[in-house]
Amino acid sequence: MHKLPYLAINDEGFIFDPTSGDSFQVSQTGLQILSGMKADKADGEIAQALAETFEVSLEDAQRDVADFRASLKNLNLV
Amino acid sequence: MDELHIGVSGINAIDNPGPGIGVARSLKEDPDLNVKIVGLAYDAMETGLFMDWVVDKSFILPYPSGAGDVFVERLLYIKRNHGLDVVIPNLDAELPLYIKHAATLADHGIRTFLPSMEQFRLRGKDRLLDIASKINISLPRTKIVNSVDGLTQAIEDIGLPVMVKGSFYKAYKSNTVSEAVSHYHDLVAEWGYPILVQQVVTGDEMNVVGLGDGEGNSLGLVGIKKLSVTALGKIWTGVTVKNEKMLAAVAEFIREFKWRGPFELECIVNGKEVFLIEINPRFPAWSYFATGVGLNLPSRLVRRALGLPVSPVPEYEAGKLFIRYTYELVTDMTNFQKAVTRGEAP
Question: What is the CATH number of domain B144-196?
Fold first, then answer.
């Protein structure tokens, strides 16, 4: 099951999974990526926004998005 | 509304707490029910006897054994001399007598809202396979045994470690055959046959408290995950969850078996798989959690038992925390003395 739409996410990066009862804390970077994924944006679009917000290269931002997505997969959240 | 005298048992809030105090608190929190709690205790040191902000009057009952005539007579005494409109029994051992004598109690104006004896028997662990398959969840591999030979064969089939369980109460994890044999003998001595040998499953410990109307409908359900437990395995902290598969299975349980009254389903959830571990035909000790998130199940039970309107089932929010804590009270010996000498207090 794709859990992303059901996750409760607050402004401080606290994530609660209502199905499993697990909770997570993400950084501001993670929060921006997660919010983008939840809004169904493509990874490229999320990376572009990330590069602008945090003033990093697009390449770094793309790698961060890919790493973060892999972490979410490991946690069975996507 | 006139005062309602509601009897609540299991009022011993110790390290293995009875469900009664949570039930009583819930009833007191319904602003439209004018409730006076009648504590039904079996010992003069049950904590509820001293918690006068929760329990208004307490009576000591005889143990629920034998045919139950003395037990029923005690309840009728309370009805005549104090008032007793509804009883919510919260202890497994007393449920068979309440179910057996429900009609007699009702004839005397004491209402209950309980499962039938057939429904009550469903809690037997030897019935869980049938239930799990009917409500579309899993049961850990389970063998029913009646001898040490059967036990060792079951362990060979399932593989160590195993849970060795009494048919109704108690369960021990066993890492070796000799440990399992020792637990087997202890359980047979205490609870008799049969004994269940069960695969150990891992995952999150999730429970549901619910109330069925006896016609296949739910009067409310709340799912929780235990975050931490005591050495006795009792919940200490928890969080509300909405595990759809578990909640759907519980709704099916109510529909399929037309469950009447309160219950608790204990499950282990591992990813997409939900294992049924136990059914308790009463409120659990943590049932105040449901009240705290807006679903006052004891109040809904009383309303149903008395034929009062019951509001539509409200939604609860996932992610609410339950924190149990310790507290002390200091009082004089009056209530203890009255309970010992007169069988009631204050």
Answer: 3.30.1490.20
HSE-CB of A12 using CA atoms within 13 angstroms: 2
3-state secondary structure string across chain A? CCCHHHCEECCCCEEECCCCCCEEECCHHHHHHHHHHHCCCCHHHHHHHHHHHHCCCHHHHHHHHHHHHHHHHHCCCC
Give span(s): CATH 3.40.50.20, chain B. 4-113+328-345
For B292-325, the pLDDT digits (tens) are 999 999 999 999 999 999 999 999 999 999 999 9
Q: What is the ipTM of this complex?
A: 0.80
Output the CATH code of domain B4-113+328-345.
3.40.50.20
The per-residue pLDDT for B232 is: 81
Residue range(s) in chain B whose domain bears CATH number 3.30.1490.20 = 144-196
pLDDT less than 50: residues of chain A: none
Q: What confidence tens digit (pLDDT) does each residue in B92-112 have?
A: 999 999 999 999 999 999 999
pLDDT of residue B167: 77
Of A8, A21, A76, the CB nearest to B225: A21
Question: How far off is chain B from A21, nearest CA to CA, in Å?
Answer: 5
Are A19 and B206 a contacting pair at CB < 8 A? no
Q: What is the pLDDT of residue A5?
A: 87
Is the CB of residue A6 less than 8 Å from the CB of residue A34?
no
The arithmetic mean of pLDDT across residues B183-187, rounded, is 94
| Residue A24 contacts B, CB cutoff 8 Å | no
- Closest C-alpha to A37, from A20, A51, A50, A53: A50
CA distance to partner chain B, nearest, from residue A19 (Å): 4
Rg over alpha carbons for chain B, rounded to the nearest Å, is: 20
Q: B244 to chain A: which residues are within 8 Å by CB?
A: 19
**Which residues of chain B are in CATH 3.30.470.20 domains?**
120-124+202-323
| B120-124+202-323: CATH class | alpha beta
